[in-house]
Amino acid sequence: MSSGCAIIIGVSYMPGLGHAIAKRFAEGGLSVGIIGRNAERLKAVQEDIEASTKDCKGVQFCTADVTDRASLQAAIKSFAELGEPTVLVYNPSAPPFPPAEVADLDPERLVNDFKTGPVGFLTAVQAVMPAMKAAGKGTILVTGATASLRAAKGLSSFASAKTSLRALSQSLAKEVSAGGIHVAHVIVDGLVDMPIHSANPDIGKGRLLDTAAVAETYWNLHMQDKRCFSFEIDVRPHEASW
User: How far, in Å, are 53, 108, 131 from residue 166 at the CA level?
Assistant: First the structure.
């Protein structure tokens, strides 16, 4: 078991990865604050976690747009009564589609992808870091993608933001790990088992990541001993090509 407050940013569909991560950390004994853009979906996630988690320490939600610094800061502050932040999970992602080649890329799309990725992450980190440094501990987990390591034709904007997010995470890990704060980057290398993908008859279950299993990976990273920190791990379904 663990304690404190886990702030999960980027919660939307249920089932979905953000929902599964929030649920796993609630099961682990933390209070949970969830942030997303859709209040109705967040409310459904809150109710599901509270109903299914024994001895739930509390779940609160707040809507925010991660591209709006003030909005995200206010959302994080709204969880103050849940306790000091022990865990931050940064899970938002700009959509990679429709594809656009560099010669045709709208600069505003590139700017927005960076606001969703590394800039939003920077806002979140700066909001929780004072408390984590004061406590001498904390976990910051970042959701990456295949594009975090390699770009692809037509995905230049998405990949640029994801590689930047990875680099920012790695710099942060090297800056704060000696102070007991664990920063890890999870490369989600595949499609997640959620309605938008599972409804497609051409995609079998073996090509979809199990959200609960991925959430368990996030939990295991949080529970790592200080003398055995991992910075990066990749996960994929067994039938995925890579």
Answer: 32, 21, 23
